[in-house]
Amino acid sequence: MKIIFTKGSGKNDRMSIFRDGKEEVIDCPKQKIIPHDMVHYAVESTLHKHGFLGRVRDGEAASFQVVSESESDGVERLVEVFQGDAWSGGDSSPKDMIDLYRVTCRARECPPLPVSPEDILAVRERIEALDQHWRGLSVGESVTLEF
Question: For residue 60, is pLDDT > 90?
Fold first, then answer.
């Protein structure tokens, strides 16, 4: 599956997903960091977990209306933790992020995925590389990722 993120000029960026000869497009609200689904890419591709992008790759529609599933719910909570960390400077300790992840999972009644401090650092490194590339793009330019 090929994913293209395109930097927009207004309130949204765009994610285009290409699979099985078809394109699906999702508007991604700007959030001052990489798009939400690019954070998904970093988490899912680094940790080899099945979240939103894995579900899309496996045939589900690229929509915001997905049926709850244990592993993808855990991925979504982890993506939220990484987003929150990025919004506040990206320097929370791995232990603090894991603690917040567990609290978030408890609050949303989903089992947390096993995540180590090394996992946190590996995902953060991927997010930082993507963010550096994303910040260097002008409006209309894109990042292409394979998933």
Answer: no
Here the tokens at position 140 are: 């209309």
Instruction: Give the number of domains in the chain.
Output: 1
Q: What residues make up the domain containing 99?
A: 33-139
CA distances 102 to 43, 44, 108, 139, Å, are 16, 18, 10, 37
pTM of the model: 0.93
Judge whether 25 lies within some domain.
no
C-alpha 23/C-alpha 27 separation (Å) is: 13
Question: Which residues pair with residue 24 across a beta bridge?
Answer: 17
The arithmetic mean of pLDDT across residues 64-89, rounded, is 89
Q: Residues 117, 95: contact at Cβ < 8 Å?
A: yes
Using CA atoms in the order 116, 92, 38, 135, what is the torsion angle rounded to 10 degrees? -140
Residue 17 placed within a domain: no
Rounded Cα distance between 103 and 30, Å, is 26
Give domain status of residue 107, yes or no.
Answer: yes
pLDDT digits (tens, 9 = 90+) for 15-56: 999 998 999 999 999 988 999 999 999 999 999 999 999 999
- Amino acid at site 144: T
